[in-house]
Amino acid sequence: MSTPRLSIIMPVHEGETYLDAALASLPDDADGLIEVIALDSSRTMRCHDIAARHAGRLTLRYEYRPDIQSWTAKTNRGAAMARAPHVAMLHQDDLWLPGRLGSILHALDADPDAAMLLTDATIIDASGRTLGCWRCPLEGRSSWEGAAVLERLLVQNFVALPSVVMRRDIWKAAGGLDESLWYTPDWDIYMKAAMRGRVSYIAEQTVAFRIHGGSQTMLGSRTPADFLNQMQIVVARYAPVIAGPRAPAIRRIAAASARINCLLAEAMHGRRTALAQIMGELLRLGPSGTWHYMRHSRILDRLLPRVQARLRGAL
């Protein structure tokens, strides 16, 4: 069996609503450029049957693992199984867009030593309708020093998970996903990767990130304090790494961003006083801090599609 260029890790759980579309979005691969590693913890074999329909056109390695429930543990298991020098994640409700594989391979050929590759994303709703574009605040060039990306990432996780490609040795050196985190393990590992080398950036929408009522970004049974704690853990871990004269301001903006994220989630669930608290956070940041927050958090890219989905009754 030839060595693939890219291993795509899919943690699957009760994913029959969207899994077929996710797998169908991956290109036919007679040349074996990619391998798909799907670990399924569903209670039934419906996802197994969906995966089996795609096994003929993809190099698909499927494991039924009801003993591994968390998506982080399944992803770490998949990364340990990966044979390619680079790994990517694709959740069961997200999609690749046409042309992504070619764009990735071109970027990897141009800079194979980059620790991580990022792209922009399209945001879609449960029905697949486009809601907006989620852009990285990395305009102007395709190669970035990790320290510059780290500064922006500390303010906000601006990365759509399915867009990321990471060197497998970097993933391993970073220790994989932190399984003690249930909301921010992806943000945590992006920070670790940025600390370990350059970051390549493709200013194209190469994936679709789906928002819907059952997604992890919804509050569900978690409390606002739970969400805030998850974000504050990551900020506390990496704020000391930021250096230079702007470091104190960046740390202050990152702390405010975590609070604003939590307040926005509360506002989306009907607590109107949260909007006034958000305005208070922005006023305390001042004009310069607010501009920096707005630019690097990509708050409008992330918020407006959710408002639109809410108005359509899709959330």
Protein described:
This protein is α/β, with parallel strands linked by helices and about 325 residues long. It is built from eleven helices and ten strands. It has helices spanning about 20-25, 45-50, 70-80, 100-110, 145-155, 170-175, 185-195, 225-240, 245-270, 275-295, 300-310; strands at about 5-10, 35-40, 60-65, 85-90, 95, 115-125, 130-135, 145, 165, 200-210. Helix 5 runs antiparallel to helix 7 and helix 9 packs across helix 10. It is globular. It starts with 5 loop residues before the first strand and ends with a helix.
Features of the shown structure:
single chain; 315 residues; alpha/beta; ten-stranded mixed beta sheet; 10 strands
The percent range for helix content is: 40-55%
List the secondary-structure elements in sequence, H or E. Answer: EHEHEHEEHEEEHEHHEHHHH
Query: Could you tell me the number of beta strands?
Result: 10
Q: Determine Rg (CA atoms, Å).
A: 19 Å
What average pLDDT do the residues reach? 94
Largest sheet: 10 strands, mixed
Q: Strand share of the residues?
A: 15-25%
How many helical stretches? 11
Shape descriptor:
globular
| Structural class computed from helices and strand pairing | alpha/beta
Spatial separation of the terminal alpha carbons: 44 Å
- Can you tell me the residue ranges where pLDDT is under 50 for at least 5 consecutive residues? none
